[in-house]
């Protein structure tokens, strides 16, 4: 089968800037690096917060940028369209997430609020479902930009869920946590060199490890 490469990425992040200037700096750096390295961007639309920062930087650096926004957000008093962005409007948050994931070959998670956390786990759940079903579709890599260590508690939560037997061992490797925008680009390039795994390939690769853990749990 022809190798699948990453061309378009979806970035999930906050519509606020956060209290520490490092969040704004990393969003701007990531957007610029995406454009400079030939990646196009899909994001949540509008010009506010980190969402606006990463999209403007990507646009200025040469990316084709697509915003996906709900009708409700479009009517909000705080909404401001970013010039140069091709915006798509959906009726609901679920349809918005589905459209964004559909358009992208990889997911990048920056700091954000409730919506960002929901989007992150939606992407993770999609991977989990595709692996479990042995899907022949290519899996979309998920990269977490762990600025300021903001996602350290979530990493601990993932390890706890694995140790308690709710997530298969090895699945955590499909969600890569990095500390800088440069590392995000390195990961994207490495996936392009190695090819993106299909669900059926991952299921086969992890089968012996999953079987061993299952036996150990039964014996315990």
Q: What share of the residues does DSSP label as strand, in percent?
A: 5-15%
Helix content: 40-55%
Major beta sheet summary:
7 strands, parallel
CATH topology: Rossmann fold
Order of helices and strands: EHEHEHEHEHEHEHH
Number of helices: 8
In order across it, which strands form the biggest sheet?
A: 4-3-2-1-5-6-7
What is the alpha-carbon Rg in Å?
18 Å
CATH class: Alpha Beta
Mean of all residue-level pLDDT scores: 86
Low-confidence stretches: none
Total individual domains: 1
* Apparent shape: globular
State the distance separating the first and last CA atoms: 42 Å
Structural class by helix and strand composition: alpha/beta
Would you identify the CATH architecture?
3-Layer(aba) Sandwich
Instruction: State the oligomer.
Output: single chain
If you had to describe this structure to a student in words, what would you say it looks like?
- This protein has 220 residues and is α/β, with parallel strands linked by helices.
- It has one domain: Rossmann fold (3-Layer(aba) Sandwich), CATH 3.40.50.
- It has 8 helices and 7 strands; from the N terminus they run βαβαβαβαβαβαβαα.
- Strands 4-3-2-1-5-6-7 form a 7-stranded parallel sheet, sandwiched between helices.
- Strand 5, helix 5 and strand 6 form a beta-alpha-beta unit.
- The longest helix is centred in the C-terminal third of the chain and has 21 residues, at 199-219.
- The chain is globular, with a radius of gyration of 18 Å.
- The chain starts with 7 loop residues before the first strand and ends with a helix.
- The model has no long low-confidence stretch (mean pLDDT 86).
């Amino acid at each position: 089968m022809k190798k699948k490469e990453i061309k378009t990425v979806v970035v999930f992040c906050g519509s606020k800037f956060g209290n520490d200037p490092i969040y704004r700096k990393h969003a701007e750096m990531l957007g610029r690096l995406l454009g400079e390295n030939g990646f196009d961007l899909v994001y949540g639309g509008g010009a506010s917060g980190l969402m606006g920062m990463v999209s403007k930087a990507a646009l200025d650096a040469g990316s084709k940028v697509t915003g996906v926004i709900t009708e409700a957000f479009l009517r909000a008093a705080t909404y401001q369209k970013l010039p140069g962005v091709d915006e798509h409007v959906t009726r609901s948050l679920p349809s918005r997430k589905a459209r964004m994931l559909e358009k992208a070959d990889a997911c990048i998670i920056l700091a954000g609020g409730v919506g960002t956390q929901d989007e992150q786990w939606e992407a993770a759940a999609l991977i989990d479902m595709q692996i479990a079903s042995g899907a022949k579709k290519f899996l979309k890599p998920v990269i977490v930009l762990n600025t300021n260590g903001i996602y350290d508690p979530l990493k601990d939560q993932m390890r706890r869920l694995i140790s308690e037997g709710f997530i298969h061992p090895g699945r955590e490797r499909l969600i890569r946590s990095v500390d800088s925008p440069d590392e995000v680009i390195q990961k994207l390039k490495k996936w392009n060199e190695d090819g993106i795994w299909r669900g059926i390939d991952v299921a086969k690769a992890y089968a012996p490890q999953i079987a061993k853990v299952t036996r150990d749990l039964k014996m315990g």
